[in-house]
């Protein structure tokens, strides 16, 4: 009996069959906008297809040499190398982040950014498939750049490729944003690989909390009454969170570990440290959840007579993703050209939700973060199975289809003023820009 029991797959099986049932009747609405002129779009798509071998090779090279957050030096160099071979000037180490990249083509306004992630995870490598994101974003930018090289008046405005490090755990895009990376940019688009083609999906906001309890050490047998037990405070906090869960909104998430809980059983622990993640579907509910967690920790400190220090956001918080529906419509139209039918939001359960630092971008300027299928539907992100999928031929095909989707969406945005108006209106209707760094103060 020294093995854990095996979790049942019953719930996941049900989720999957419910997803299938919804998928069979789901329709993503067609975009009412014209987008770019047909011939221009066709030529752009052909340029993406011509780049396909290089994009698949880039995805494979990044996959074979994974680097974790803020260490993506070789990955950034590979992306820059491909761009430079195509005559693009690349700025490395921009916005104060050594592994960030920036390249830009066009002039005047409007401006749209295509984002590329390339960080991997410890142990499991590219189990989130950011190698596919990098190839897609780079391919989209290159195709647009080559279109402008052939005809500088092909379309108005600017296209910016932003290489965004450290998505996993560090909210690298928020660091770039605070350094001005999105200043003067009107919209931002990116894509993420997944087990389905999804036009829209829920991404939860996320904050990090470190709670440090300070007690009074004492001999646990001789003079326990002279102690104040910091581990008790951590234990009560852990239990308090457990009880709080029943009263939380359905997709709120709290995960906690006790990172330090004392040294020896014979000493009343004078220090305990907890690390928590708090996640919620909306910015305001994440703010409310934050306050409740603070109350739980303070209550535990009061019960145990310990001191408590609450340190939020060791790395910047992530807001949920706010999806721009007008841009999504053009992404869907582009994916249909590729023979894909991205499913609307709500087909895949929102309970299968993670977080992304793109959320912070999407509350500053209009943006989309659709998903492209490269794996079987039951393969979850951050698993060895997904890492294998991210290195498969399907990942190469996904990268090319995603590159076409991003390139065409960007072209539509720059060419169609009515679409741009709708994008801006949708963003305003959703609440307009938010002061992200000040949001949780
Ligand atoms: Zn991830
Ligand atoms: Zn990811």
From TrEMBL:
Q: Which GO terms describe its cellular component?
A: cytoplasm
InterPro entries noted in UniProt: Amidohydrolase, Bact_exopeptidase_dim_dom, Peptidase_M20, Peptidase_M20/M20A_hydrolases, Peptidase_M20_dimer, Xaa-Arg_dipeptidase
Give residue spans, biased composition: Polar residues.
Answer: 1-11
Q: Which residues form the Peptidase M20 dimerisation domain?
A: 210-298
Which Gene Ontology BP terms does the record give? folic acid catabolic process
From the UniProt record, report the name of the gene that encodes this protein: abgB_1
Q: Which organism is it from?
A: Arthrobacter saudimassiliensis
Q: Which GO terms describe its molecular function?
A: dipeptidase activity; para-aminobenzoyl-glutamate hydrolase activity
> What is the protein's given name?
Peptidase M20 domain-containing protein 2
């Amino acid at each position: 009996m020294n093995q854990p029991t095996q979790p049942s797959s019953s719930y996941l099986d049900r989720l999957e069959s419910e997803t299938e049932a919804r998928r069979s009747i789901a329709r993503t609405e067609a975009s009412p906008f014209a987008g770019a002129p047909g011939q221009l779009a066709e030529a752009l798509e052909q340029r993406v297809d011509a780049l396909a071998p290089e994009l698949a090779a880039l995805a494979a090279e990044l996959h074979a040499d994974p680097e974790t957050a803020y260490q993506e030096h070789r990955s950034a160099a590979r992306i820059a190398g491909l761009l430079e071979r195509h005559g693009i000037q690349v700025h490395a180490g921009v916005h104060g982040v050594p592994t960030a990249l920036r390249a830009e083509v066009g002039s005047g306004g409007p401006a749209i950014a295509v984002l590329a992630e390339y960080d991997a995870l410890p142990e499991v490598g590219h189990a989130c498939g950011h190698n596919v994101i990098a190839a897609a974003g780079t391919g989209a930018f290159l195709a647009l750049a080559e279109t402008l090289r052939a005809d500088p008046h092909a379309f108005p405005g600017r296209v910016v490729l932003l290489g965004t490090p450290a998505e996993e755990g560090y909210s690298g895009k928020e660091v770039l944003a605070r350094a001005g990376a999105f200043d003067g940019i009107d919209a931002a688009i990116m894509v993420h690989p997944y087990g389905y083609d999804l036009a829209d999906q829920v991404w939860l906001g996320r904050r990090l909390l470190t709670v440090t309890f300070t007690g009074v050490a004492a001999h646990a047998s001789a003079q326990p009454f002279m102690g104040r037990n910091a581990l008790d405070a951590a234990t009560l906090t852990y239990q308090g969170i457990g009880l709080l869960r029943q009263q939380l909104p359905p997709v709120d998430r709290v995960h906690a570990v006790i990172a330090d809980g004392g040294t020896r059983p014979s000493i009343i622990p004078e220090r305990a440290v907890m690390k928590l993640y708090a996640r919620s579907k909306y910015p305001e509910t994440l703010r409310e959840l934050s306050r409740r967690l603070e109350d739980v920790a303070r209550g535990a400190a009061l019960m145990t007579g310990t001191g408590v220090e609450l340190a939020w956001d060791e790395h910047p918080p992530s807001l949920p993703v706010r999806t721009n529906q007008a841009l999504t419509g053009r992404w869907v139209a582009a994916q249909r050209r590729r023979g894909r039918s991205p499913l609307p939001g709500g087909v895949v359960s929102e309970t299968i939700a993670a977080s992304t630092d793109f959320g912070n971008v999407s509350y500053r300027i209009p943006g989309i973060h659709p998903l492209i299928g490269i794996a079987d539907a039951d393969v979850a992100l951050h698993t060895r199975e997904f890492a294998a999928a991210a290195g498969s031929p399907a990942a190469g095909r996904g990268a090319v289809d995603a590159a076409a989707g991003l390139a065409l969406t960007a072209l539509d945005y720059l060419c169609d003023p009515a679409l741009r108006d709708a994008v801006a209106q949708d963003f305003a209707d959703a609440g307009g820009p938010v002061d992200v760094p000040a949001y949780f103060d």
